[in-house]
Every structure is written in structure tokens, then in C-alpha cells.
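tl;dr need the bound structure. longer version: we got a ligand (pyridoxal-5'-phosphate) that a collaborator sent over and nobodys looked at where it sits. i said id run it. heres the input, straight from their email, havent touched it
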Amino acid sequence: MGPAVTNASLSEARSGVMAKGFVSATNCYIAKARGASLFDVEGREFIDFGGGIGVMNVGHSHPKVVAAIQQQAERFTHTCFMVTPYEVPVALAARLCAAVPGNFPKAVMFANSGAEAVENAVKIARYQTQKQAIIAFENSFHGRTLLTMTLTSKVKPYKFGFGPYAPEVYRMPFAYCYRCPFQLTYPTCGVACAEALNDFFISQVAPEATAALIAEPVQGEGGFITPPKAYFQKLKAICEANQVLFIADEIQSGMGRTGTMFAMEHYGVVPDLTTVAKSLAAGMPLSAVVGRKEIMDAVHPSGIGGTYGGNPLACAAALAVMDVFKEEDLLARAKTLGTRIQSRLQAFEEEFELIGDVRGLGPMMAMELVTDRVKKTPATDAAKALVKYCFDHGLILLACGTYGNVIRLLMPLVISDAQLDQGLEIIYDGLVFIQSNSHA
Ligand SMILES: Cc1ncc(COP(=O)(O)O)c(C=O)c1O
């Protein structure tokens, strides 16, 4: 028997052979994962409030997903859908067309990562409209490839040093009510930030040159920024009036994360194109663009595609995910979770000055930490300290936000009440610890 594998030995082995920029937030190396629990190579258990960044809505190693992958693996693992097609992506496309908002014919194309789905949505929008400009938002995150990095807002670490960026991307302020870019207050603002799109078409880019606007229904990496309902309704109406397509990037907010299958349902807005990834296939790399059939079908044969798009293992996993949502009524579970989490975070907000804002949709909830509630100074160090405290006490927690001061919750929706409460208790203890240290 060789020497035991430990977190330290793997860290050391990794440092010699893996690129430093390809970093991990923790140094626990996972040996096994079940439901909402992770177990590292040293046998330590963690409650997972990160879900592999919003990927594990149906829980780790769900038996149905595992069985679907195993069965498909025994049949075949790859033929390339572009060469010799097979059934699973066809069945999955039908399920996605039915699940994505919009009472009209739709079509789907599959890719492997979220960024690839966004890239394809932009290509399709450009092709169909024969226009080039894309409007994206401040605080947005759409990926790390050249085009999606360009669409992404935050400079460090995502963009710095990686230019030049892709052309014809224009950026508007978002409905970040807690830090309103127009210094207004909802609802007396009249959602001026959405009305601003009319001015944007005059001062920044003409609608005749604009293919699409792309928005996250709840900005994920940007800090779980959740606009008021009227925001997307107004944006969509202005887009329609100007023949500009509306792309919803549901990569983080979709697949039940907010208590509805897609977050746009909360706003009553039907996008022209929707990007889906993350929890779609419970960790198998799979993404999709789902959209109006006439837009999706506009592209010439082979204009979109890829070697692994519609990979059979990933599609089999995604079909199992869809079944699990139905059989276990996960949307209802998500709503219950959302209510429980919201009331607990609001209680935290009352108790701890450090919390400036609690926001989100359903269980996609976050708290923004500030050192001063009036000035709203981002408490980035406190967010880091809270994440570390939680890790040290057996909870995986993720920070996000333009200033890195937002704590977001992305636990599997199958988490038990007991485990949820245990995780929230660790956060509570962490807040007490940080508050007592800041007064020390
Ligand atoms: C809204 C959104 N879009 C796109 C992406 C990029 O997805 P991927 O990392 O799979 O390329 C992410 C990833 O966090 C995301 O949250």
C-alpha cells in the first residue's frame, strides 16, 4: 500500500502540475458526495451550501441520475450527434421546449458549458436579426471565453489582462436597488433603470444595430441582484418595440433554483432565447439554448454545433433530473426552502449590523455584508472571514458580488430541514464570531 492520500498531499501534488490560475476555494479534496453532503479524502463531512456553484439542485449522486448515467454508459458514451445521432437529446429537447417559458414552437441546441450556451445564443441572435450589437449589464456574469468574458462585467479576476475583448458589446446599469445606479428608490423610481434603455438606444447604440439584450433574471456571480418585477417587463417591452431579441441567461437561476423551473416565470416575461446549464444535468457537462423555433432555425446547417453537444451521458443525466423534479415535487420543496431561508436570513439581518441587504427569489437567497449600513461600505473581509469560519466548522459557503461581499446560498434542493438548519446555525455562529471580533 502506498502512503495515504491526504488533502495536504493532494495540494502539494497539484501545485507542481496544475496551473495556478485554475484555483480552488478550499483545500478539501472530495472522495464522495451524497445529497447535500460532501466527504473529503480524510473522511471529514461538509454540508454543501454551494452545490458545486449551483449545479446540484437534485443533490449529489442522486440514485436515479447515477443509474441513468450507468445505463447509458453501458450502451455507448459517444458517437457525435452531428454524425450518427441517437435518441436521448431528442427526448431532452422535447422536455426543455415544454419547460422553458413561452407558448410558441421552440427548438433547442446543445453544448457543454454555460459559456458555450451564451456564445451560441449570441451567434443565433446575430444571425437571425442580421445585426451585431449585444447589450449586457453591469454586475453580469456570462462566462470566461472571449465573448462571454467580454459580456461579463467584473474586471478582476475575470477580464484583467485578457484583452482585447470582443467588439460590439455595450453595457447598461442593472436594477441593483440596494445600490441604485440612478440614486433612486423603488417604487417611486418608476423603474427608471429599465426606461433608461430608450436613452441607451440614443446615446450608446442604435436598436437598428442591436441583435439582442442579454440578462440574468437574478444576477448570480454579481451578487444575487434581484430586480423588481416591472423591470424585466419594461425591458422586454422596449426590446419588442425596437426589434431587439431578449436573451435570458438562466444558467444559474434556472432548473428550479428560484422555486419555479425558470426564474423569468416570476417576472411574467417570456424571453426569445434562454440559456440553460449548471443544474440541467446534475454535474455532467451540458448546456442548452432554447428559443423561438423561427429564431433557432434561422442558422444554416453546421453553423452551430460541436463534437460533444448533446453528449449521451449528459442528456441521460438531464432526463433523470427532469424526472426527479417531477417525482419528488422539487419545485414545491424549493418554495418551502425559500420561505424557511428567507425568514432566517431576515432574522440575521435584524440582529447583525453587518448585514446590509437580504435578497433573492425562492431559495436563491443572499445577504450583502457592509461595514456601515448608511454608507453601505462593502464588508469584503468579513465575507471572506465568514466563508472561512463556515468551512472550519463543516459548511461549504460561497461568496459573490462585484465587491466580493455577498454570501449566497446554493444548497441542493433535496437538503433535509435538519441539515439546512444545521448549516444556517453555523452561519449564525460565524456572524456572532465576526461581530464579537470586530468589537474586540
Ligand atoms: C449566469 C451564468 N452564465 C454563464 C455562466 C458560465 O457557465 P460555465 O462556467 O459553465 O461556462 C455562469 C457560471 O457561473 C453563470 O452563472
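gonna send this back to them w/ a short note. The mean pLDDT is 97.
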